[in-house]
Amino acid sequence: MGKATTRLFLPLLRQLCPEIVDLAMPLEGVFHNCAIVSVRKRFPGHVRKVIHFMWGMGQMMYTKCIIAVDAEVNVHNSSEVAWRAFNNIDGKRDLLFSDGPLDALDHASPTAHFGCRIGIDATRKGPQDGHPRPWPPELVMDKAIEALVNQRWKEYGI
Asked: How far is residue 15's CA from residue 44's CA, in Å, rounded to a whole number?
């Protein structure tokens, strides 16, 4: 039901915020405590704009954690999202804290129905984001090597 809800609301979110590419609300977040959104960035602060937009959309105000990734990231692949979040953030620049409404069932906030939410910008950074250092290129495995490894995986004994 949670996956169906995500798929039903994605077209509406994209109509109101066309920079949204895809959305996942994983089971591990009980479908409402965590949202992963892929974003087509075009200007400084764009990801923050999208995160605030999402918190302003009805029941999305209860989402405790929104993780934003680049447009090409598969938001339904938790390993890929985790890799981006663990490697692409600087705590001071890329974490956004916002006090606001929380779900009535949230037991972690010190007060009922209200607490702190977090937005995580796990996108690539460049000068427009205040990041002057060069960003490393994407690591992409050659398809032939990937097929060979998959074919021989059991032989490796890992």
From this structure: 21
Q: Is 143 helix (H, G, I), strand (E, B) or coil?
A: helix
* Helical spans, DSSP H, in the chain: 2-16, 46-55, 78-87, 91-94, 143-152
Strand stretches in the chain, DSSP E: 20-24, 34-39, 65-70, 95-101, 114-121
In this predicted model, what pLDDT tens digit does every residue of 94-139 receive, in sequence order? 999 999 999 988 899 999 999 999 999 999 999 989 899 999 988 8
Residue 30: count other Cβ atoms within 10 Å of its Cβ. 13
CA distances from 60 to 9, 33, 56 (A): 11, 9, 7
CB 34 within 8 A of CB 65: yes
Q: Which domains does the chain have, with CATH numbers?
A: 2-156 (3.40.1670.10)
Question: Are residues 70 and 124 in contact, defined by beta-carbon separation less than 8 angstroms?
Answer: yes
Length of the chain in terms of residues written: 158
Return d(Cα 22, Cα 6) in angstroms, integer: 10
Radius of gyration of the chain (CA): 18
